[in-house]
């Protein structure tokens, strides 16, 4: 017996083994089962028909989707990737149905069971979708909590700065809180916003907590604008939270400035009276003003009466500018302003005396003349006029200002003053008595050349052919200082004379002009 190379024996040939099972009869249920099993994304339909490479491709596609989708992101899976994967599943299901139509199942006993299993396994991608949505929601929550945390840190950092520098940071944090509340109202971050807003208000108002009331005004005014960004319903009681604190800050800052004599208090009191006219703080404004006027009035009798008068003048103007109508204090403030004005006018006398004693003669002239004009019935008016005359004399003859003039008048020594000049003149004198008078110009008189006045025989007021305007006054014994000033010509310097008057003599004062050098 012998065998050929094809396995033939005694003339018989053995056919080769088939490479795959012969196709079975077409089974729609089997096709449906394979398609359903492939829709799970795991290629199980290919597994039951022994298409291992095809199953591997399904696994690879699912793995790629998981790499793209995980970890879960608030934005979810990119739309293109999701569409491509769904198209792939549809193609895998269609291809699996084509293969399973005539291919016997290798791992499951029947097509019906495979179909049922395929339906059951559809829960796998469905469950994955649910779990992924949950993970994405959690990622979104974490993202929102991160935003909340960044806003909190911004508030804390801004709270360590001056409000001017911190305001921009506060506004950004407030916008973040508002966005969380409006755009994600049901998130955990949004539910925490009300507590954060309380901290926000307290942080912005830190200067108030430190009792730094002037610095607290700006941040508290800012807090009153927050309802423009955050709804009143969301803020609740915080809407009115800054009001009383702002009223307290406005009053306290303004009262401190008023007491110190600084600027700015009128604007703050004005804002308080206009914004919170019925508040307890607004009720303290007029008493504070009254106290400041009282203090200034008392200061008129102190070491610096001029500063007190200036203070009273300022209070008069400032108090009249306060808007007291809404708070019902207009009349009371008006009385305070009147008292300041009256005290300033009467206090000018003490100021003028101080200026005279300090040698500020020009200021004393102005002050005393104003006092005499503004207080026609004041008991010191006559002496103020005397001091103004003496101060004017002392501007030319400083020695005349050594003593404060009195209201005394008259004396036993006759002094005649003649005018040998073409100008009307004012004659001022001070010493034991003080006064002034005017003389008309001499119609036939002219100015003398300087050289003429230097000659030994020069005698003004000695021309019998001229009718010199003149006046005789009576003065006491002692030194009297005279000053002659032109009333009609400008640019001429006044002339002065110091006369030591003694009994038994008749004195004559002569006023004349020299070319280019005045009287």
Give a nutshell description of this structure.
This protein is α+β, with helices and mostly antiparallel strands and 519 residues long. The protein is built from 20 helices and seven strands.
Would you kindly provide a written description of the structure presented here, covering whatever features stand out?
With 519 residues, this protein is α+β, with helices and mostly antiparallel strands. It has four domains: 28-121; 135-239; 246-358, no CATH class; 398-512, Immunoglobulin-like (Sandwich). It has helices spanning 28-38, 44-48, 52-69, 79-100, 111-121, 123-158, 163-183, 188-204, 206-209, 213-223, 232-235, 241-260, 265-275, 280-283, 285-299, 305-320, 330-357, 361-374, 381-396, 450-453; strands at 413-420, 425-430, 435-439, 470-475, 478-486, 495-501, 507-512. Strand 5 and strand 6 (495-501) form a beta hairpin. The model is unreliable at 1-9 (pLDDT under 50).
In sequence order, what are the helices and strands, one letter per element? Answer: HHHHHHHHHHHHHHHHHHHEEEHEEEE
- What class, by secondary structure content? alpha+beta
Residues in β-strands, percent: 5-15%
Give the overall average pLDDT: 82
Name the CATH superfamily classification of the largest domain. Immunoglobulins
Descriptive terms for the model:
519 residues; alpha+beta; 4 domains; 4-stranded antiparallel beta sheet; 3-stranded mixed beta sheet; 20 helices; 55% helix; rod-shaped; disordered N terminus
